[in-house]
Amino acid sequence: MSTQPEISDSGAFVGALVFLRGEKDANLAEIHSGLLRENGVAAGVPLLGGGWNILLRLAVKDRESLDQLIEKHIRPIKGVEDFEAYYCKETWTASGDSAECKASTCAVLDVDSGSLAALIARLRAMAGVAEGNVADGGKQIILFLRGNSSREIRKVPGEEIRRLPGVLRVKLYDTMCF
Fold first, then answer.
1. pLDDT tens across 35-83, in order?
2. Calpha distance 22→50 (Å, rounded)
3. Which domains, from first to last, does the chain contain?
4. Which of 123, 140, 144 is nearest to 45 (CA)?
5. Which of 6, 56, 73, 177 is placed for a possible disulfide with 101 were both Cys, Cβ 3.0 to 4.6 Å?
6. Distances in Å between the alpha carbon of 176 and those of 131, 145, 168?
């Protein structure tokens, strides 16, 4: 599932967040370390539960390079059963410091794109939201939540984010600090 990003001529990097699922007997550590050596893979972390095994952050100079990275270096990897790419249009840092990270969760929000600006403003001000990415043409927001414990972090989407007008669905993935 992916939507092509709107790319400007501003010279800004083009990015994507890619969720990977390995086959049953795949060597995920080898896949992960191999991907981290690829040009354009800015970061990658293991995911704990939720059906995906690895989350990658891609950043390249243009759309063509992004397509090549996915088609030539991610799609054909032996041991990868499936992947989902979320093309990111906007990235922001809301709060928190990754050096202080004790627990981290990635939340994929399906949102009503008509309320995107107001939703982003509210999420940026929310405690525990360390970073956000607008993806899939404004239909999704991918958040990185950080805190002292997984229990503390899970309260943010459960008690605050799900109640926000414009949030249609929230999927959570526990991660190593990202």
1. 999 999 988 988 887 789 999 999 888 888 988 999 999 999 999 999 9
2. 13
3. 14-88 (3.30.70.920), 89-175 (3.30.70.920)
4. 144
5. 177
6. 15, 11, 26
